Amino acid sequence: MCRPDWEVMMDPGGDPPFELDSWVNLAPFERTLGMEITEAGGGEALLTMPFTVKLAQGMGLLHGGALTSLADTAAAMAIKTVLPEGTHFATVALRTEFFSPVRGGVVSARARAVKEDDRTFRGEVSVADDSDREIARFVSTFKVAKGRG
């Protein structure tokens, strides 16, 4: 049985045990997956992530969860570029469609933030392999926390 590392866990409702260098930046989980922000501004973002064996599923393909994490993060970065620094928001719904497997290389996620109302944003993301072939499409809904934006 795995035991949690109590010294590095966050106290519920407390501050995270780390600090981001800037508002549009990657969290530890995203860095663990190898994501990089290539572009971010004006409601758009482009992120990349290399295929590594640690991100493979049982058949040796890039895991769909890793691709979905990349797309979700790209959408969040696009949204951050149009919100005031420190605004609290979260993914409340997502849908990913997969078109082709990834066996290697670097994947990229191009995201666009669409404001639907005062507290709701839609993230639209196209994920491509390094030959620029679309391998997945991602659509999500983000909500800004009441009184936190």
Q: What is the compact description of this entry?
A:
With 149 residues, the chain is of the alpha+beta class. It is built from 2 helices and 6 strands.
Polypeptide structure, described:
The protein has 149 residues and is α+β, with helices and mostly antiparallel strands. It has a single domain (29-144), classed as Hotdog Thioesterase (Thiol Ester Dehydrase, Chain A), CATH 3.10.129. The chain is 15% helix and 37% strand. The protein is built from 2 helices and 6 strands. The radius of gyration is 16 Å and the shape is globular. The protein starts with 27 loop residues before the first helix and ends in a 5-residue tail after the last strand. The relative contact order is 0.18. The model has no long low-confidence stretch (mean pLDDT 91).
CATH topology, by name, is: Thiol Ester Dehydrase, Chain A
Write down the domain tally: 1
Strand order of the largest sheet: 1-2-4-5-6-3
Characterize the largest beta sheet: strand count, sense, and whether it forms a barrel: 6 strands, antiparallel
Indicate the radius of gyration in whole angstroms: 16 Å
Along the chain, the helix and strand elements come as HEEHEEEE
- From the N-terminal CA to the C-terminal CA, the straight-line distance is 40 Å
Mean pLDDT comes to 91
Regions with pLDDT < 50 over 5+ consecutive residues? none
The CATH superfamily bears the name Hotdog Thioesterase
What characteristic shape results from the CA principal axes? globular
Classification by helices and strands: alpha+beta
Task: Count the beta strands.
Answer: 6
Helix content: 10-25%
| Beta-strand content estimate | 35-45%
